[in-house]
Amino acid sequence: MGVVLNQSLKNTIITYLGFGIGAINTLYLYPIFLGATYYAVTNYVLSAANVIMPLFAIGMQNTLVKYYSQYKTEEERERFLSFTVIFPILLCIPIGLIGLFYFDTIVYFVTKKNTVVKEFIWLIPFVAICMAYFEIFYAWARVHMHSVFGNFIKEVGLRVFSLFATIAVYYEYITAIEFVYVTAGIYFIALVITMWYAFRIKHPNFQFVIPANVKEILEYTFYIILSGSVANLLLDGDKLMLNQYMKIDNIAYYSVATYIALVISVPSRAMHQIVYPITAKLMHEDKHDELNSLYKKTSINLQVVGGFVMLCIFVNINQLYQIVPKEYSGGIGVVFMIGLSKYFDLILGNNNAIIFNSKYYRMVLFLGLLLVFLTVVLNMYFIPRYGIIGSAFATLLSITLYSLAKLLFVVKRMDLYPFSKQTVSSIGLTTLVFFLFYFWEFPLYPLIGIALKSALVTVVYLYLNYKFIISAEINGLIDGLLKKIRK
Question: How many CB atoms lie within 10 A of CB 105?
């Protein structure tokens, strides 16, 4: 866990820094400077791009991580790297032609309720391609155990550029409409920077030679496209559905709430960057006991860290919403429902990495497709009746069922189990601290009240987790810090 903890810690710090900048954008700058409509339009473009991104990446970011370590010679690895970069370009062309052929039909479908998005439809595939190749070049760096820089660009760089763009709107250098186009340009810049960094780590020697195991690769890639589509639809599909049934401003209200809740998943995102290739290596070498140990460690560590983040959000949510425009306040229930779904997914540790690197990934991916269908049906039912709260409930139900199905699959088929008695203890402690702090507030300016309550939560939560030794690794880190302080 040495490399994992080292890079995961760096990635966690970077990701939280990015989320901190994003919080300034999401809770203050976007609602006030862009207004609900163009904030919603920007979110819709990015969400739609994220949903179709797996089609443009052709799953190569995951394929690269899974198969790179299996090639024995440098020549084989160079050929494989070339294949992962060139092959998606060849498949993007027919996808683009199909999109052009059905362009009018697509535009009519997505603009029936909100015509304002019509002008920006063409940005969706452009941003999707930028996202796709960003992930491919980021995977290029990750297989060489360089996950920090790409994570910095993804989590901090994009948000810093967006912050500058929002300030440009405030000073009237650009309009809110132009901001949407600038956002697309920011994703292109991120792609170029990440490509440059990946090529510095490993200089490319492009040669289009089809790998000997191409059949196996393409079969895996096909299922990864399905899995990526499932995951992204579960993440962003609700925003696309809201566009079909409600005024587009509601996407802005929903986006603020989901952004707050997504902070809970940051530890998982940070650890995943380095755990994924390690999991692939352990599975390739058939080291079952080491894999099971890693599974348990990632689960409890993420549960402790994620539980702390969830607590800080939940106990402060009412005061947090006092600093955003009043029309956004209907999203408090959304924060709780999306937050709980993220917490449950987070305590599964490196479950996804295990599944996608196993021989059993096909069945679970098809199950995911069924759950996407369920998500769409639930949103179609709940959104017209309950608005954004209905969409959040549909997402909570779908993600929970999907996560539970993946957990049962790994337990039954692979004899790997992430939970222990510490899991139950952690849930109990988290619940106790929530009830201790949720029902009262400091009668001060919201940000001061949030800071004071969060400080108290931190002390109580860390003490209880340390006292009951919920995570041996986290206790070890605390002991190390205490020794340095005492010197």
Answer: 9
